[in-house]
Amino acid sequence: MKHFIAFALLLCSVAAVFGSVSVSAEDVRHRPLNDLNGYFPFHPPASLEQWETRKEYVRRQILVATGLWPMPTKTPLNPVLHGKIQRDGYTVEKVYFESAPGLFVTGNLYRPTNIQGKVPGVMLAHGHHKDARLDMTPEGKLRGLIADGAERFERAGRSTYQSQCRQLALMGCVVWQWDMLGDSDSIQLSRELVHGFAKQRPEMNTTKHWGLFSPQAEAHCQNVMGLQTLNAVRGLDFLLSLPEVDSERVAVTGASGGGTQTMILAAIDERIKLSFPVVMVSTAMQGGCTCENASLLRVNTGNVEFAALAAPRPQGMNTADDWTKEMATKGFPDLQQLYALYGKKGDVFLKRGEHFPHNYNAVTRSAFYTFLNKHFKLGFQTPVIEHDFEPLPPEQLTVWNDQHPAPKAADPDFERNLLAWFTNDAEQQLSAAASTPEGLKNVILPAAEVIIGRTYANAGDVTWELDDEQDHGDYVQHTGTLLNKTHSEEVNVVWLCPKHPSGRVVIWLDDSGKTAVCSDDGSVNPAVQTLVQAGVTVLGADLFLQNGKTMKQTRVVENPREFAGYTFGYNHALFAQRTHDVLSIVRFLRHADSGPCPNPDLKSVAIAGWHHSGPIAAVAGGIAGDAIDRTAIDTKGFRFGQVLDYRDPMFLPGGAKYLDLPGLIALHAPRPLWLAGESQTPATITTAYLAASESGALVTFIGDAAQKQTAASEWLLK
């Protein structure tokens, strides 16, 4: 009884958001939304071949989500190194460079003295501790850490970051420790914005000159996690630009938020040869900060699988008395199984430490030094442990001074201009890609598959269940449900099946669902009637949550902070879910052995989309490729870049980045396309058809709006 009441309350909450809807208990999409506190298991592949396919997709998913597909143009770093400090056996320098024009990355560079030949490089990312690189642990807290065995020394323990950098330099490594955005010397974006964003800013939520966290930024895959990931990539560029660094021995490590940066960098950049993410690899909580989340990022994946992307390169991690405490039984055995497929089971390592709190303590640091020493063949006695020393005070580490003045802090104009630069840079790269069939196939289509979260190949196994059948003389009307067994989804559909079929099928989509084909009183849309009379089978569908009523806002997770990534970093947007339904329909038509309209001689599948369903049909058609022979769509001038509410039913993370709707429509080339709703044909679409030498396959309707559907039906019959 309790379970029934709970489910009933869930249905009521859904109805409160969406209005009166018919909810099917079988469709998994009606379940509560996923969030960062869910369960994220990693399922090891059965073979390396299977893994390589999955690995490529998840890596691409990370890159798209963080705005790095394609990688922003790598402009000159313009590095500045100054204020070298000579210490016993190593030096410390102050460094800043530009990861993008005007965006400064700040930190310290540690180098061993008397370098001979090539030496290893280590990147050290820090977590969310305020002013982490410059911070000194208070005496009272430090004594407690020493008493618990987490630290060893009263002097060195005051700065664990300096302790780690110093130890690695004394082991012969060049160490780059950089600041997280909004921390220490990284002041151009405030800490409150980067790590504490909670509420949308009206002045930054505009269709031009927008800021971070706005629906516009989300639609362009612009987010704090992406900026930090780019800083890490450019930091690796900087480290490898140093002539003494051995490109075959480069490692990255960090704890908490730094652990997130560590696993992400190792996942996307093969130049990292060893990684050691600390207190972050887990099947439980995935990272609570806005800087650790991004829309699209963890949909159907999670941190353990992110760590798996580093395989078979050596990788260590740890457990603590936090969300990582079950890693020894949940997650790590799966990573071992994957590494075993490579014959490298011993190259993934777990340092148990459930008695320690959430930190990068001396015991774990020693485990990292020892792991690094083994795999980089440094030749030190093991286990490697730190020694006491006097850390430098913050004023000797800070990058900015009178000779090197700091940029303006928390500057909204800088924020807007930075995102504008990324937008323009992406548009230039993507316009070039969309102008060739190869670029559409290799750049735009792979991104679209991530944005929608499904490819046509994995659309699923779809079956048919009949509810009702009515004979109307020349045709038979079938009403029922398409069941996607693979993804546990359902689509309610109606078929109008001519008794003398031509072998052609048209999927007819509109916001009113299947009633756009035939209404409840049995009357048929005149444009549809034209098709049926010509022997064309027409299918109408209620896409997910379509009920003929206007939906105002979609669901979001129970988090008071107005950040799209907390919802859409773990769940598909409604637009994507409706696109999934279209892919399910096409998959059924192309692969089902039987259906309501027996038609062994299927000749073609076409799709027509109207009103808000026009863009859905357009995107589905682009992803489905040759499975759809021709497409007729009315865009009504829609652009993802005009949506200013991340709860809008038409909001799609990443939807505006890839040249917006025209870029996704361009994927139809060279297949026949009938286009309405545009005052003139977008250049992106025209260029794609010209490049495919099929300009005649593109037809733009510019006639009377009342004649659109009639004109489309006539075109579909050609």
Number of strands: 18
Shape: elongated
CATH superfamily name of the largest domain? Alpha/Beta hydrolase fold, catalytic domain
Report on the biggest sheet.
9 strands, mixed
- CATH top level label of the largest domain: Alpha Beta
Structural class: alpha/beta
> Spans of 5+ residues with little confidence (pLDDT < 50)?
1-25
Helix segment tally: 20
User: Can you give the mean pLDDT?
Assistant: 94
Query: Residue share in helices?
Result: 25-40%
Label the CATH architecture of the largest domain.
Answer: 3-Layer(aba) Sandwich
The end-to-end distance, rounded to whole angstroms, is 57 Å
Structural domains: how many: 2
Oligomeric grouping of the chains:
single chain
Strand content: 15-25%
- Alpha carbon gyration radius: 28 Å
Strand order of the largest sheet: 10-11-12-14-13-15-16-17-18
Query: What is the CATH topology classification name of the largest domain?
Result: Rossmann fold
Describe the 3D structure.
The protein has 718 residues and is an alpha/beta fold. The chain folds into 2 domains: 57-425, Rossmann fold (3-Layer(aba) Sandwich), CATH 3.40.50.1820; 454-717, Alpha/Beta hydrolase fold, catalytic domain (Rossmann fold, 3-Layer(aba) Sandwich). The protein contains 20 helices and 18 strands. It has helices at 2-18, 48-65, 139-148, 160-170, 191-196, 215-219, 224-241, 257-268, 303-308, 332-341, 362-375, 412-434, 437-452, 526-533, 564-568, 574-591, 613-624, 660-665, 683-691, 708-716, and strands spanning 80-87, 90-100, 103-112, 119-125, 174-178, 245-255, 274-278, 315-318, 348-351, 462-471, 475-484, 489-498, 504-509, 537-542, 604-609, 630-634, 673-676, 698-700. It has a 9-stranded mixed β-sheet with strand order 10-11-12-14-13-15-16-17-18, with helices on both faces. Strand 2 (90-100) and strand 3 form a beta hairpin. It is elongated, with a radius of gyration of 28 Å. Residues 1-25 have low confidence and may be disordered.
